[in-house]
Amino acid sequence: MKLWIGNIAPDTPDEEIREFVKKYAPDLECTKIQRVDGDGSRPAAVLEFADTPYGSVEKISLRLHGMHWKGRELFVQTVVR
To answer: How many domains does the chain have?
Structure first.
């Protein structure tokens, strides 16, 4: 399962995204981040995790969705693929 985080502040480095997610979900290990720039106004990232406990990605999605980070309201959802 993957986690989509949209409306990330431009120029936010991958490591900072990892640390942000780790702060709220210390049991998740992010193995890959794929950037989705779109038109540049609301950059996004898709995070992949290794060996996730059942329901943990859904839980962090609910926790982070709507949260304000770096002056932006995040749009977070799970992606199954």
So the answer is: 1
